[in-house]
Hints:
Blueprint: H1 2-15, E1 23-25, E2 30-32, H2 40-68, H3 91-107, H4 129-161, H5 168-180, H6 191-203, H7 205-212
Antiparallel strand pairs: 1-2
Helix pairs in contact: 1-2, 2-3, 2-4, 3-4, 4-5, 4-6, 5-7
Amino acid sequence: RGALTHCEDVLLIESASATDNPLVFAESGEVISGGNFHGAPLALGLDYAAIAIADLMSMSERRSDRLVNPDKNEGLPAFLARHPGLESGFMTAHVAAASLVNEARVLAHPASVDNITTSGGKEDHVSMGMTSALKLRAIVDLAENLLAIELLAAAEGLEHRHPLKAGVGVERALAAVRKIAPPLMQDRSLSADITHVAEAIRRGDFEAEGEKS
Length: 213
């Protein structure tokens, strides 16, 4: 959260600032553009946010593992399957989660540490901020899909705990998931479920449900 707040602060400051290093002469009121623009603050902030989100994704994947792994999930069926040993359950969904985390970790490498001199040597240090922004956007997309997998797995785990009830907020989240995706009664493709839950995350639907509780 601190990393994302820092990135937001940098974006607000830079968007309200002159980035071309102008020379300001107070006495005459003259402003001469220096042309020495540099986007390093933005690039560094975007890279910082990307690293933070990739780290959060690692935590999400570990939580999903604890839900599907029969050695860790406190008595839930293996891979949350209705018929363990005969069905895959959430096994392939967790494989997808691991793949998403791997891709995010690769993308989390900071673009701002790279440099290619351009413009005949005049731009001798380049921030690579656009690459930082594109990578961050890609990581956010990956994170939404990863959290969708975790939400679906958590909802399935709660189904196996019935008639026990969770807290009010968790039950609201479960109900929100179930409006989108039914319980996994037998093996089926989860691609559409993951996509639809990820879209709900992007819209802030689950955050709104949490605020109600």
